[in-house]
Amino acid sequence: MRLGKLTVVCVSIIMCLLCCVAGRGALAAEDDRAAYEAIDRQLSEDVERYHIPAMAVAVVDKDTVLFEQTYGECERADEPFIIGSMSKSFTAAAIMQLVEQGSIELDRPVDEYIDASEWFSEGTNHGRITIRDLLNHTSGIPTYQTFGSLESTDSYGSHVYANANYGLLGLVIESVSGLPYEDYIERNIFDPLGMSHSATTLEQSKKHGLIDGYRNYFGIPVAGEPDYPGKIQRGTWESVPAGFLSSSVADMEAYLQMYLRGGEQVLSAESIDRMFYENVPAGDGTHYGMGWIYETERYSQPVLMHPGLVENYTSNMVIIPDKGIAVVMLVNMNDYLVGNNLLENVILPLLGERRQELPNLYLILHAVIDAACLALCLVSLQPLFSLRRWKARTGDTRQHVLDILRHLVLPMALLAAPLLMGVPYKVVWLFVKDLAAVMALNAAVLTAVGVYKATFLLKKATDSRAAG
Predict the structure, then answer these.
(1) pLDDT at 340
(2) Is 78 within 8 Å of 197 (Cβ atoms)?
(3) Where does residue 239 rank: exposed (0-12), middle (13-18), buried (19+ CB within 10 A)?
(4) How far is Cα 442 from Cα 407, in angstroms, rounded to an integer?
């Protein structure tokens, strides 16, 4: 009888505890639901505020999708976007698979796996560059160098971000596996994870329903074909292994959950740990590992992340180890001068950070940029439409000084500005075509009018001497 009473008491206590736990769990779930509803409202406002044509966002833990939403023109979670440099983590994962198989050693020279001399300038010491150097961007290759003229500079051993590093890794994967890069990624990463709307070619991306990408022209988003790279060859800068895989937010959920689960059937937990934490200093409290950036100071807790940016798509993925969750955001627009800087505010709430309550700067910032472009156009066109008045003042010394500044110094400054900032003109053209066109056209007009004026003055001087 006592045993029966004791059993009843024990069962009663256990039931009470279970009810308490269930109640707390329900409250926690309710709190989470309310938090994600608030985030959803914020993101909906941000899409309108920053003129984003389409966006897809998800938050996952290792077992479930905690939040998934699409905005604007993106109607389904399986619509793919080009994911930019987030592609580098896929390339790094493939390398680590081959390391696990014993086919690659991280600290062996890249020359042992491919004929690197084909891609480097003659006389470059590329023999010192290892697979790890390529993964961590410590090869000494400058940011914007192209294949066929690569160099390993004095920066060797220090982190300098360069797409060429991951293009070379793509060639290593092909050489070691005997498969084209595209086939290797599909068979060994996409297929095992069920990433059925991810692709490694533009053709396959379009078959999966690739959402249109937008560039920003003077504050107006305009849809256009992506500048998708072909096979790596001499003179190219961009490559698929460095930045042109495509994926949907639903597929990226599976990809990030693979990391949260310790690799599943794709990678070992040890390889993931090495990708994350065998890194090098990259400045401003960041470290660059193998396709992942380790941020320790930017937020209230350490995160692993990698942004992506191509000509008409932007993206970001973040893993928060302490919380055991991951976030992915895909956007089908590149607004290089304005909108991309504001996207940080979109992702902050998903990281548990307080968003900055900024005024709607989109229109203001674009208006300032457009006004500067208009002013430059007026400065360039004014001499063209005032040639008759100029001819009447050809003896004015001040006019000659102004002409030198306007028709020689200013065009040279416009054309040299990208180079002075360390950015080749072709890169400016790829990412900000509107600004590149304004600079080039105004430089051309100013130069042409300057040549006309110089020719006129020379002819006038010649005629004067002949008459004298």
Answers:
(1) 63
(2) yes
(3) buried
(4) 10
- Rounded CA-CA distance 162/181 in Å is 19
- Identify the residue whose tokens are 């390391």: 99
Average pLDDT in the chain: 88
Q: Which distant-in-sequence residues (6+ apart) come within 8 Å of 418 by Cβ?
A: 424, 425, 427, 428
Classify the C-alpha dihedral 342-345-350-353 as positive or negative: positive
Using the predicted structure, report yes or no on whether residue 213 has a pLDDT greater than 70. Answer: yes
Rg of the Cα trace of the chain? Answer: 28
State pTM to two decimals.
0.87
Q: pLDDT tens, 22-68?
A: 343 333 455 577 778 888 888 898 888 888 999 999 999 999 999 99
Q: Which residues of 333-367 are buried (b: 16+ CB within 10 A; e: fewer)?
A: bbbbbbbbebbebbbbbbbeeebeeeeebbeebbe
Burial class (CB in 10 A: 0-12, 13-18, 19+), 325: buried
Closest by alpha carbon to 335, among 300, 369, 289?
369
CB 219, CB 144: distance < 8 Å: no
- Residue 43: name the closest of 30, 33, 54, 31 by CA: 54
Cα dihedral across residues 454, 457, 463, 468: positive or negative:
negative
Bridge partners (DSSP) listed for residue 315 = 308, 330
List Cβ neighbours of 177 (8 Å cut-off, separation of 6 or more).
98, 103, 184
